[in-house]
Design brief:
This protein has about 475 residues and is of the alpha+beta class. About 25% of the residues lie in helices and about 10% in strands. The strands form seven sheets. Strands 3, 4, 7 and 9 form a four-stranded antiparallel beta sheet that branches. Strands 1-15-12 form a three-stranded mixed beta sheet, with no helix packed on it. A two-stranded antiparallel sheet has the order 2-8.
């Protein structure tokens, strides 16, 4: 029979289905054999054990706090708090908020971040793909200053990107690089090159000279939660830190850099909030004196629990059948169900962070391989090195070309809490999102469309339980 199939394929290639996805890759039964403990999952605003509850409450207060100009907000920004973009259904979740990005591809196919004129064209913002929606001036102190960003006509690539949940990201951070690389190699080998996720390395801001496999953001542009925090603080809120100390523009800026430092007014205000939050609980352990907001953001995210399943829906026959179909048609090849974190005591992020017992050797279920894939929805935007890693990395822009048409596999845990799907939020139903899958995901999408209407609905029921 195998000779007959081989002969048929050689004579009539279109009669042959593309290489089938291995039935076990990323599926429910594909669990690393480490004896890992299950990671805690809940939407309950409780610590996962990384820190005590009082510390978690204090860090959450910092995460939720609204910044003001005297804290360093702006001059260009998108939101005044982390909570504004990460709020559903609890602090740290996703939201409907999107950001605007733009760039240019020239006649030779080279990508360039947008060059954005502000101040009536007298100043050009370079090295960034993010177009901030807000600015702090004109204001009372600068009544005649105009710094609002707009997409320039020269930018022929434009896209939106939804904010994503950061819940459970402490477990994602604690996955060893080698685990992601091994999965990528296995994925490519077992699909005979049809699906090959890219484990793309990026700089670790807190460990100069060190790189790590990226895993945070739609482009996997950050590898550590501290780097991710500094990136968002600067680019989304306009607040500089010790890791990213340079303002996007100095126009209208009145707070000395770096603006995020332990003795800032914002930190003092938040310390009072932490004290109030701890009244009914045991006092929090002392926080290191050098801790600034970005440290607290990172510690909060590391201490969050993973998004849980809808237990009621997950136990229905439809969801159980849909779960099997999810595996059998190949969705789990990229949306991997099971990952395991590195053992406690493992040093990661260039040696700057040691995986603690609460995060070490934990089995969790993100429904993502956290690799970069070309699934036909890539927005053409490359990682802008100066924007995400600082001006000293601007020379690395050419190395980011593989990221233009790739997107990090979206984790499906918590997808039931989202009303807008895919990186740009343009897909409004699960069916819409599935239909958009192409490129490496085309075979799985085609298998879905070949299912009966009843089977398709059971698979969607399973997705609604995540």
């Amino acid at each position: 029979m195998s000779r007959f199939i081989a002969l048929l394929c050689s004579l009539v290639p279109l009669a042959c289905v593309v290489v089938p996805v291995p039935p076990n890759l990323g599926t429910e039964s594909d669990v690393p054999s480490t004896g890992a403990q299950e990671a805690p999952a809940a939407f309950d605003d409780q610590t996962n054990g990384f820190v005590e509850q009082a510390t978690f409450d204090g860090d959450q207060a910092v995460f939720n706090d609204v910044e003001v100009i005297s804290d360093g907000l702006g001059p260009l920004f998108n939101a005044a708090s982390c909570l504004a973009c990460h709020q559903n259904p609890v602090s740290g979740g996703g939201s409907q908020v999107s950001e605007l990005r733009a760039g240019k591809r020239d006649a030779y196919g080279h990508f360039e971040p947008a060059r954005v004129p502000i101040a009536r064209g007298t100043v050009i913002i370079e090295g960034r793909t993010l177009i901030n929606d807000r600015a702090i001036c004109p204001n009372g102190a600068f009544p005649d200053q105009e710094i609002q960003e707009h997409v320039p006509d020269s930018a022929n690539i434009r896209t939106f990107r939804l904010s994503v949940s950061v819940l459970g990201d402490g477990f994602v951070e604690a996955v060893a690089d080698e685990s992601l690389r091994t999965y990528a190699a296995r994925q490519c080998k077992e699909t005979q090159g049809q699906i090959c996720g890219h484990a793309f390395e990026v700089p670790v801001l807190e460990a100069p000279g060190m790189n790590r496999v990226g895993r945070f953001g739609w482009k996997g542009q950050q590898a550590s939660l501290l780097s991710f925090s500094a990136d968002a603080y600067l680019n989304e809120m306009g607040i500089t830190s010790r890791l990213l100390p340079d303002e996007v523009t100095k126009l209208c800026d009145t707070v000395p850099d770096p603006e995020d430092k332990p003795e800032s007014p914002a930190v003092a205000r938040r310390a009072q909030a932490r004290s109030r939050a701890a009244v009914a609980r045991a006092p929090a352990p002392p926080t290191p004196a050098e801790f600034a907001d970005i440290d607290r953001f990172a510690r909060f995210m590391r201490a969050t629990k993973a998004p849980p399943r809808d237990v009621v829906l997950a136990q229905t026959d439809a969801a159980r059948k849909g779960s099997g179909l999810f595996d059998s048609i190949g969705c789990a090849t990229c949306h991997a169900r099971n990952l395991v974190t590195a053992p406690a005591g493992t040093k990661i992020n260039g040696g700057t962070f040691t995986v603690p017992p609460a995060l070490g050797n934990r089995l969790f279920h993100p429904f993502s391989d956290f690799l970069m894939h070309d699934v036909g929805t890539g927005d053409g935007i490359e990682i802008a090195t100066a924007e995400h890693f600082g001006k000293r990395f601007a020379h690395m822009q050419q190395q980011m070309s593989p990221t233009a048409d790739r997107i990090r596999t979206a984790p499906l845990w918590g997808v039931r809490t989202r009303s807008r799907l895919m990186h740009d939020g343009a897909s409004l139903t699960l069916r819409d999102a599935i239909d958009r899958h192409a490129g490496e995901a085309k075979s799985a999408r085609n298998r879905y469309t070949s299912l009966s209407a009843e089977e398709q609905e059971t698979l969607l029921t399973f997705l609604r339980s995540l």
